[in-house]
Amino acid sequence: MNERARHWQYDELPGVDLLRARYVHKTFVRHTHENFVIAAIADGVEVFHHGGGDQYAGAGALALVNPDTPHTGRAGVPEGWRYGAVYPPPGVVAEIAAETTALRGTPGFVSPVVDDPYAVGLVHQVLRAAEEGNALAADTLLRVAVTRLLRLNGGPLPRREVRTAGARIAARARGVLEERMACPPSLERLAADLGTSPFALLRAFRDVYGMPPHAWLTDARVRRARQLLDAGTAPSEVAVAVGFTDQPHLNRHFTRMVGVPPGAYQRERKNVQDQR
Questions:
Q1: Rounded Cα–Cα distance for residues 29 and 135 (Å)
Q2: Positions of the chain with pLDDT under 50
Q3: What local confidence, expressed as pLDDT, does residue 104 receive?
Q4: Is the dihedral of CA 219, 221, 223, 225 positive or negative?
Q5: Class of domain 4-156
């Protein structure tokens, strides 16, 4: 079976990423999203590591990941998996929750897997409407799908409060890595600058952000790369700007986290802009 994927945006769903894909050998490395992930499995099985264990989502189920939550992804059966996904921003989900549910606080999903063939169908209808340029249907169906999933599986997200000394050091380390993304310090240098030891920093960072600093930095570089590609910067320039050694280095990491190469990702964005 051939692997294929399309990652795009529809002008009438601002800030919402859309994906259709079939993967067989594809493996997503540990990464995060700024938006929610609502992935509707049509065929096969996806396995993704989330919250300390492997989660399995088969046909008729949805994989649900809250923003900034580390997770992976791979096939759970030899034939892989086929799915469609929508990635609504936190603001959109909060707006829908306020209008249609009794949830208080910052809304999110409680369980990472929900068996609900009806909601799976709604997600695929959103994608179809976007492909057909049916703005009324796409917006309506997205709101119906998010409302249904929040009512079935919604709850307030826990607040991340930086209280402990370790958490404060991890937050400071993250700030340094964001500022020095293109030329980061070594773990030893970073720890020394923050007045701690390398292993103490490593433990604190993993506790707060769910991954070690080097993995978090790669994830952050890909996020920044997406922003630059959205703005029309050439992939070769993006690679240097975010700290990858060259474009093949960017291509490898970008594809392992986003699911499509940066060139294909940018072409879809350009197509949307050209249609405006």
A1: 33
A2: none
A3: 87
A4: negative
A5: mainly beta
